[in-house]
Structures are given as C-alpha cells and as structure tokens.
Write a structure and sequence with these properties.
With 748 residues, the protein is mainly beta. Helix content is 5%, strand content 57%. The protein has a 26-stranded antiparallel β-barrel. A four-stranded mixed β-sheet has the order 7-8-14-15, with no helix packed on it. Strands 6-9 form a two-stranded antiparallel sheet.
Length: 748
C-alpha cells in the first residue's frame, strides 16, 4: 500500500507543476527583467489647499504554494519543532505603507501563516516620535519518541487504567505534543532626542502533554503529563541620555499559573492492594519581579564608567497536597500531619555590575568589570516529624529508620572580576592580556566556598590582503576552600537509618570539585586566490579533576572546522565545510549496598568501577549558489550530513571478594545517530511582480540505542498485581521523507 501511494505522488505532482507553468506562461507572455525594489508609486494629486501631498509609497508581498510529502512523515522526530502540512500553504506575507501626512507608517511581516509554527510581526508609528509593535509566535514541540498510552484520561491530570492488565494490549500509539502560543505588545515613545519610554506586555500559553515518570514505591509509571501553563510578563523602562551621561530605570514582572495542580493515576493493581494509585504535585503557581537601575558617565574623554543595580523577588505559596492519595494508608493510626498549609516560599536576588573602560595613550586600552549576584532564600525550613515517602508506603518508622526530615533553603553568592589590557602596535594587530576571578559562596551545598583564577593571552591579526589569524590561550584553577560531603545530614534532624551507608568519602561533584583547565583556540582565514578562499579553526579544552577520588576524573574536548568557497563565475559560487568534534571523559564510582536485618552492608574497593566515554561527531556540508539570466533565476543546492557515535567502556578496578555484591563490569552498547538532508531550491522571476519558487528536500534520520530498542512497555508486570514498571513505550525516531513544494510570489 505504501509503495502505491508513493508512486502516485511522484506521478501527479510533476503534472501539477507543468500545468501551473503553462498557465502562467500563457497569461504573462512578455517577460520583464526583475529588480529588488518594490514598484514605485505615482505622485498623488494636490490637496484642497493646493499644497502637494507626499508620495504614498507602499507595497505588499504575498507568497502562496502547494506542498506534497512522501515517506515517514508520521514519525514524531520529523515534526519535532516544525509543522509541514501537505496541500495549500501561505509561506510569506509582507506589507509596508506610509500615510500621506505626518510620516506615519505601518509594517506587517508573517511567515508560515497556515502552519503551526507561525510568526507574525506588526509595527506602526511615526519615526522619531512613537512606535507600536505586536508579535504573535506559535511553536510546536513534538516529543521525539512516540509511545503507547495505556491509561484513559478521566479528568484534568487524572488517569485510570481500565480493566487493569487487560488494557495493556492494543493501546494506540500517540505523539505527545506541546504547543506554545505567545503574544507581545509594545509601545515606545520618544518625546525628544534625550528621552526613551517603553512598555511591553507579553502573555504566553503552553498546552499539550509530555512524558512524565512517576513512582509508587518500586513500581514506575510513565504517564502523559498535562501541560496547561499561562505566563504573563510586563516590562517598563525609561531612559534619558545626555552627551556625557545616560540614566535608565526598568522593571519586569512575571506571573505563572498552572491550571492542573496534580497528576493522579489509579487502576494499576487489584482493588484493595496498596500502591495501585498515586499522585504527584505539578509545577506550582509563582510570581517574580525585578527592578534595574543603570547609569553611564564619561569621566574623561578616554574613560567611561557604567553601573547597574538590580534587585528582585520571587514568591511561591502553593498549598501542600496530602502525603498520599491511598485511603488505606491515610486511615492508619499515627498518620502524620503537615507542618504547614503551604510553603510560603520566598527568594530575593541582588545583582550589581560595574564596568570601567578607557584608553591609555594611542596604543593601549583597558577594561575592568566587577559583577556580583546574590540569591537569598528566605523560605522557612519546615520540619516534617514523619512523612510518607511513597503512596504504597505506610507512615511507620523505627529508630533504625527515622522519619524526621526538613527542607533546606539553598542559597548562594557569586562574584566575578575581569581585568583586560589591550595593546594595538599597529592597524593590523591587537594583543591582549586578561585575568578573571570567580568566587562562589553556597549555603547547604558540599563546597561552602570556592575560588577560580583564570589567566590568558590573545592575539588578533589581519592584513589588507584578507589574511587573518586569531589565537587565544588560557589557564584556570578552581579550588574549594571547604568540601563537606555530609552536608545533606542537616536534612535529617533525628539522624539517618542505622543501616544506611555514609557518603562516599572521595566523591566530588564536578561543578564544585577542584579543577585545572587549559583552553586554547586558533582560527586562520586565507584568501588563496581572487576566487578561492578557505578558513580553518581548532579548539582544545582540557579539564582535570585530580583531587577527586570518585566522580568525574577528566573532561577532554577537541573540535576542528574547515570551510572553503570558490567563485566559479561572478554569479555562481561553490562552498563546502567540515567539522569534527571529539569528547572524552572518565567517571569513577563504587557499587555499594545498604545493610538490612538480614544482609550486611557492602562497601569495599572491590566494587569500584570506572567508565571512559568517547563521543565523536562528524558534520559535512556543501552546496551551490547561482544567479542566472541577470538574476532572473536564483538556484540553491545544499547537502548536509552528520554522524555521531558514543562509546562507553567500563572496567572493574579490582576483583571483588567471594560472595560480595558487585556485578561484572561490562561495556555499554554504542549509541549512534545519523542525519542527512538534500535541499534544492529554484526561484524564477517571471516579471517585476511575479515569481515562482520550486523546492525539493530529502531527509533521512537513523538512531541506534540499545536502551530504546530493548525497552518493554510493561516490564515485569503480571496479572497478579505485582510489577516493576509501566512505560509509555519506546519507538526509535527513524524516518525517510521526501518534500516537494511550488509557490507563487506576487508584489503589488
């Protein structure tokens, strides 16, 4: 069936193109040489007072067409961030007009008008006095992996598995899609050359579903989480500028509202069995507001200072949900109560940025910048004397497994200092030296404070012949002054379980661990001949975590690029490019097992293992741009191909003791993907006002991932009601698609 449909498409579509060309050739037999300027209007008649009116310039461009596709267009990966419907479509709409008096104008630009990924921009005003703008953006996002939904949606955020395990057969395949609609309205008023006033309002709405993993004890349930978000933002600013100074004040407010408060599921297990139902809170409503005060002042003719201070506030006070949705657990004696009705979450931020720049003589320039960002978390730390970790767990705790917990209000302060000195010995080269310092002070994190020092040099050179060389090297060292791997114990006022293992002592988190980093990049641009030019670049990045016994050990990145262009004729050019990226990093960890009443703990070097990951990506591209018949025919040809592969080699660092809990270390299966695209476009101008566009594209995408290929929709579930996981299911995002389109553009 698929073969017959594809053959039918390829036969009928060229016939349609031929008929359209013949029809246009009959109507417009006389060809005219096109130009890029819109049609020039004729002067209007004089006004009633005899004063000639201004010209009434204006033009409109409309491009409509027809599209056909063949192949695997239903695969979610193909339409992940775009919409390509078949049949009639409106590609572009542009309009510009000016009123005969006062110089007022109106502009309208719109793309993909008949598709889900729509973009519209409209503006009107009087130059130098005021401007009103409006935007509308619509963007779809289809999850790259399609799956089977076994649950039935019984309400907002509520899903039920009908017939229990009989529903696990024959569930329909569906694509999970989120659509984002945003509108922007803005007003800009400039009463005079010194003042600039602006006001913007932007509401946004996101609707759809996305995959969400949930757990009820040891049972994992993946569901289509509903997305019903509304966000409203308001921005206002005022600026006054004088020859030697500028002052600006602005404010920004944001309001987020989630129409679905929780995700609930039921029917997984037999009636009366604990854990068959569950509930999880979704993103809470919240507000954010910030102010910014900025100013710039010319200290001298060669020195300038800029300062910005921006305080901000964030609030969230969503009501807490009960610990569990399971009525059997709620009815047990000693069921815990919540310590508060809501979180009363509050954060306050303060950003300060100061910049001093200037010149010292004719050959030297300097820049000094200091930035500070502070996040104060004023959220109260609530103590939960007892709690229910899962909907399938009773609220019973013993001395061996204490149940008291409290939330930790994380906070931090980040400071940055940048100093740069530049020397320009001539008009063709610039040398610079720079030093950077970054300090982080954290609350309730492993590294309470860390400092990183960065130093480097750079050189930029270019001659009149077009040769250019840019080089940069830098070295940095980050050191935490204090690293506490047991910081999380502050969340357990009554202590942890007697059987729980402590934190692995040598484990360090990559974002806070001691690190040495070397970075360098060089770019060369070479005009080989008058018609042939080439450029190449190479970047190396080396990070070493030498003080980390476990966790990330090193992160090594390399990339090389090259491109070449050749001018075959004054209006015909060829181009090609290639990029190679290589990433190598190593991780070390230990297989550990907490103790229980029956099994002793296992925490031995015999469980140590190490993984070395190697990622490689190759990207090729090439094409042709041509303008023929005095640019009446413009043709573009492009082919792109990318291929990536990830290999993970894992080895045991020592032999485990006999009978120890330590699995055999094995290499992970490789993960790879390959994408290629061929695009051909030809635009033919029939007259100054009418043009045709013919387009063809071929796309092919393939991915290989053992984790997806071997995933089962319901792993371990049985009709008896005991199970492990229920997933939406996995489908590898592979597709092969042909796309044809023809469009007609008209300027009037």
């Amino acid at each position: 069936m698929n073969r017959r449909q594809r053959h039918g498409t390829t036969r009928t579509f060229p016939s349609f193109l031929l008929a359209l060309c013949l029809l246009s050739g009959t109507v417009f037999a006389q060809l005219a040489v096109p130009n890029d300027r819109p049609p020039q209007p004729k002067p209007s008649a004089a006004g009633a007072n005899g004063v000639p009116l201004r010209l009434f310039p204006g033009w409109t461009f409309l491009e409509v067409g027809v599209r056909k596709t063949a192949g695997d267009t239903g695969v979610a990966k193909f339409s992940e961030y775009r919409d390509l419907p078949t049949g009639f479509f409106i590609r572009n709409l542009a309009l510009h007009t000016e009123l005969p008096r006062g110089g007022a104008y109106f502009d309208l630009q719109s793309r993909q008008n008949s598709e889900k990924d729509l973009n519209v921009l409209a503006g009107a005003g009087v130059p130098g006095q005021f401007k009103v703008t409006g935007t509308w953006s619509r963007l779809p996002h289809t999850e790259a992996t399609a799956g089977r939904n076994f649950y039935v949606r019984s309400g907002p955020g509520r899903f039920t598995l009908p017939g229990q395990f009989q529903a696990l057969q024959g569930a329909p395949v569906q694509n999970l899609t989120i659509e984002r609609n945003s509108v922007g309205l803005g007003v800009q008023v400039t009463p005079n050359e010194a003042w600039d006033l602006r006001l913007e309002y932007s509401p946004e709405r996101r609707t759809g579903f996305r995959p969400s993993g949930n757990t009820s004890g040891f049972t994992v349930v993946e569901l289509p989480e509903p997305v019903q978000y509304r966000t409203s933002s308001v921005k206002a600013s005022a600026e006054v500028a004088k020859p030697r100074w500028v002052v600006q004040a602005s404010s920004q407010s944001s309001l987020f509202h989630n129409e679905v408060k929780a995700l609930e599921w039921s029917g997984l297990l037999q009636p009366g069995v604990t854990g068959g139902a569950g509930r999880r809170a979704l993103a809470p409503d919240n507000t954010a507001q910030s102010f910014a005060f900025s100013g710039a002042l010319d200290l001298t003719q060669s020195a300038r200072i800029v300062a910005t201070v921006a305080p901000g506030w964030m609030r969230q006070n969503e009501a807490f949900l009960p610990f569990t949705i399971d009525p059997a657990t709620q009815s047990r004696p000693g069921f815990p109560s919540l310590p508060a009705a809501s979180l009363q979450g509050s954060k306050q931020t303060l950003m300060m940025n100061y910049l001093l720049s200037g010149k010292a003589g004719k050959q030297f320039a300097y820049t000094a910048r200091y930035r500070s960002y502070r996040l104060d978390n004023e959220t109260p730390s609530l103590r939960f004397s007892s709690y229910v970790p899962y909907d399938s767990s009773p609220s019973v705790f013993s001395e061996a497994s204490p149940g008291s917990r409290r939330n930790l209000p994380y906070a931090y302060t980040k400071q940055n200092l940048n100093l740069e000195w530049m020397w320009e010995p001539g008009k063709t080269s610039v040398a610079r030296w720079f030093y950077q310092w970054e300090a982080m002070d954290r609350t309730y994190r492993e590294a309470r404070r860390s400092n990183e020092h960065i130093g480097g040099v750079g050189w930029d050179w270019m001659n009149r012949g077009g040769w250019a060389l840019n080089a940069l090297i830098q070295h940095s060292r980050r050191r935490p002054e204090q690293y506490d791997p047991d910081y999380f114990l502050a969340s357990f006022p009554a202590g942890t379980s007697a059987f729980a293992l402590p934190q692995l002592r040598g484990l360090r988190r990559a974002d806070q661990a001691a690190r040495t980093r070397n970075y360098g990049t060089v770019t060369l641009q070479a005009p080989v001949t008058e018609t042939l030019s080439a450029s190449a670049a190479y970047t190396v990045d080396r990070s070493f975590f030498n003080e980390s016994g476990y966790g990330a050990l090193h992160d090594l990145n390399d990339s090389a690029t090259g491109d070449v262009s050749y001018l075959l004729a004054p209006s015909i050019s060829l181009f090609g490019d290639y990029t190679y990226e290589r990433i190598r990093y190593a991780l070390r960890s230990r297989q550990r097992l907490d103790a229980s009443l029956a099994v002793p703990a296992y925490d031995s070097a015999g469980g140590d293992w190490e993984s070395n990951v190697r990622d490689a990506v190759h990207t090729w591209g090439g094409g042709l741009n041509a303008g023929l018949f005095r640019n009446r025919l413009v043709a573009d040809l492009h082919y792109g191909f990318s291929e990536g592969e990830s290999l993970t080699a894992t080895k045991a660092l020592s032999r485990p003791a006999a009978g120890a809990f330590a699995p055999q270390a094995e290499d992970y299966p490789s993960v790879s993907n390959r994408f290629q695209r061929l695009a051909v476009s030809a635009k033919f101008a029939l007259t100054n006002s009418i043009s045709y566009r013919f387009e063809y594209a071929y796309e092919r995408y393939r991915a290989a991932d053992a984790a997806l290929e071997q995933a089962l929709p319901f792993s371990g579930l049985t009709g008896a009601g005991a199970g492990d996981a229920l997933f939406l299911g996995m489908a590898l995002p592979r597709y092969r698609v042909h796309i044809w389109s023809v469009s007609l553009g008209y300027v009037f």
